[in-house]
């Protein structure tokens, strides 16, 4: 015991080797009372410590940019939300109904991790999987997928999965360095569109932007050395979230934080499917238009929309709090001259003209995932292109006929899309149509002839019929079609009263007459100026009533807690039924 007590205490950490011993991989033994180690003394070499010391702790994997473990995971413990079989079923549904629009995963890699239950041990991946399940459960609750509907319970609802995903994200976002946290935030934003939860949509997109800026995600040159499957996932996430933010800015009058001029990320490689992407490289498709081709062209359209939103906002600037309009020389300098509306329309036409024959028409859904993805892209491309045309039609004083013609073209194009795609895309399609309807509302802010009002009436009635069909296909009753029909009835009523009171010519307002005139191509407003309203007050009264009842009006959205463009959201699924 005394011998043990007199023995010197060993150091728990080996001393740092000198430069020479480190270089030759020799044992570096210190000499008591000397600054030179035994090896350097034996060989007469200088004993130096000039090399930089490496940081201790787990090293970052150069292929993934991740650490094997992190202190933030110490307090996290896996808590099952659903059976593993349900998670796998929801993943299969994501591949079928969500992936064609938001291909955020390299599917072979992702589903392999799901099958191996890696989400039970990886906090960031758990958050992503739960967010994915929440998105799919939200679609299923809208009855877009009857085959899996019976598997859901109150404890496995979209809200339950969403809560699990949010709880797995570190409160301090500086600790959320893993790529999967960015993907989780994007998925949660997609879910918010599905649920019409616009307040939290902005919050999740804002968190995504914070994580993106903190990690340099917006610049591909700052990414780690990623294998091809992960690199494609990063590109897809970046551009998917970019299009989502442009869509949000148009639909809910938001701002664009994703500026394409300040980013440096390439488009995803156009492959037939994800099997063509492996750790050894990508095999681009040759001689065939892939669904990723249509997806990239849709992204091109959103890049055009970003500039159109800028132009539209510059022409609609509201006065500042001091009452001074912000149409100053700075804005005038940097927005003029710019391309003309005709040039932009030609660009949109040329962009859509790059599409192959696979994207000209959506064929009936067959169950062949590779083929059905073209139908999803046709629906997405149609709505995005028509949004661009509608913004262009409202620019530079375009006529009401041109704007209503865009609506009629949209109605015709969407009528050709099979119901199965509409049901799968679900409420985001309603929001997209609503954003186009909101743009139509700009025309009622200027004086209109009775003929122009008839054009608006016909467009609104067409939208009402379209949205009725969409609501029936999706399985929701948001009430927007009934509001549109009430608006059409008010137009008919007011125009009839004016005709009865002799404001117009002796013939009365008649919807069928207007329809016959429209079909004949005759513009009664230009051929007979006596059709104008007798007084500006009557015009203003009708415009004011239409604005108050306009179902796509965004003014109340920023004032009320309920941020849904459709008003109060009704429950989409009755768990008791």
UniProtKB/TrEMBL annotation:
Pfam families: Fungal_trans, Zn_clus
Molecular function per GO: DNA binding; DNA-binding transcription factor activity, RNA polymerase II-specific; zinc ion binding
Keyword DNA-binding carried by entry: no
GO biological process, one term: DNA-templated transcription
Entry annotated with the keyword Nucleus: yes
Domain of life of the source: Eukaryota
Gene3D superfamilies, sorted: Zn(2)-C6 fungal-type DNA-binding domain
Keywords: Metal-binding, Nucleus
Record region (Disordered): 505-531
Residue ranges of every copy of the Zn(2)-C6 fungal-type domain listed in the record: 12-58
PANTHER family in UniProt: TRANSCRIPTION FACTOR PDR1, ZN(II)2CYS6 TRANSCRIPTION FACTOR (EUROFUNG)
Protein name stated in the entry: Zn(2)-C6 fungal-type domain-containing protein
């Amino acid at each position: 015991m005394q011998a043990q007590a007199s023995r010197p205490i060993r150091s728990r950490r080996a001393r740092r080797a000198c430069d020479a011993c480190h270089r030759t991989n020799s044992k570096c033994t210190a000499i008591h009372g000397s600054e030179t180690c035994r090896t350097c003394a034996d060989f007469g070499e200088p004993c130096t410590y000039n090399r930089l010391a490496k940081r201790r702790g787990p090293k970052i994997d150069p292929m993934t940019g991740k650490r094997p473990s992190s202190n933030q995971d110490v307090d996290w413990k896996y808590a099952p939300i659903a059976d593993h079989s349900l998670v796998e079923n929801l993943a299969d549904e994501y591949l079928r109904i969500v992936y064609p629009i938001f291909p955020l995963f390299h599917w072979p890699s992702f589903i392999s991790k799901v099958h191996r239950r890696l989400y039970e041990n990886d906090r960031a991946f758990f958050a992503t999987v739960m967010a994915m399940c929440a998105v799919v459960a939200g679609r299923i609750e809208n009855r877009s997928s009857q085959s899996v509907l019976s598997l859901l319970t109150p404890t496995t609802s979209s809200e339950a999965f969403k809560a699990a995903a949010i709880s797995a994200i570190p409160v301090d976002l500086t600790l959320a360095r893993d790529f999967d946290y960015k993907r989780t935030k994007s998925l949660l934003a997609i879910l918010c569109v599905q649920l019409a939860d616009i307040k939290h949509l902005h919050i999740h997109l804002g968190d995504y932007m914070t994580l993106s800026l903190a990690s340099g995600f917006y610049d591909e040159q700052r990414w780690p050395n990623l294998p091809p499957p992960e690199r494609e996932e990063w590109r897809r996430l970046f551009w998917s979230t970019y299009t989502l933010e442009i869509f949000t800015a148009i639909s809910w009058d938001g701002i664009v934080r994703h500026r394409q001029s300040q980013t440096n990320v390439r488009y995803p490689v156009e492959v037939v499917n994800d099997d063509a992407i492996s750790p050894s490289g990508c095999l681009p498709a040759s001689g065939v238009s892939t669904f990723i081709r249509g997806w990239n062209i849709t992204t091109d359209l959103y890049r055009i929309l970003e500039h159109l939103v800028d132009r539209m906002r510059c022409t609609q600037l509201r006065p500042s709090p001091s009452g001074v309009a912000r149409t100053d020389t700075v804005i005038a300098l940097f927005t003029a001259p710019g391309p003309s509306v005709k040039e932009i329309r030609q660009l949109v036409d040329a962009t859509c003209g790059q599409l192959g024959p696979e994207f000209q028409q959506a064929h009936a859904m067959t169950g062949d995932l590779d083929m059905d993805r073209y139908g999803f892209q046709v629906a997405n491309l149609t709505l995005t292109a028509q949004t661009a045309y509608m913004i262009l039609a409202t620019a530079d004083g375009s006529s009401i006929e041109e704007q209503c013609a865009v609506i009629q073209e949209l109605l015709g194009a969407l009528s050709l899309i099979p119901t199965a795609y509409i049901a799968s895309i679900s409420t985001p399609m309603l929001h997209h149509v609503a954003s186009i309807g909101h743009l139509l509302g700009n025309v009622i802010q200027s004086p209109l002839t009775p003929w122009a009002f008839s054009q608006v009436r016909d467009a609104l009635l067409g939208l009402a019929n379209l949205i009725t069909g969409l609501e029936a296909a999706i399985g929701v009753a948001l009430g927007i079609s009934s509001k549109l029909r009430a608006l059409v009835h008010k137009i008919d009523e007011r125009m009839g009263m004016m005709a009865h009171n002799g404001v117009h010519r002796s013939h009365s307002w008649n919807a069928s007459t207007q329809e016959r005139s429209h079909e004949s191509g005759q513009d009664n407003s230009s051929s007979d100026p006596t059709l104008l309203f007798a007084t500006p007050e009557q015009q203003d009264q009708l415009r004011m009533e239409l604005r108050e009842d306009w179902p796509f009006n965004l003014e109340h959205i920023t004032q009320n807690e309920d941020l849904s463009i459709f008003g109060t959201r009704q429950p989409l699924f009755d768990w008791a039924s």
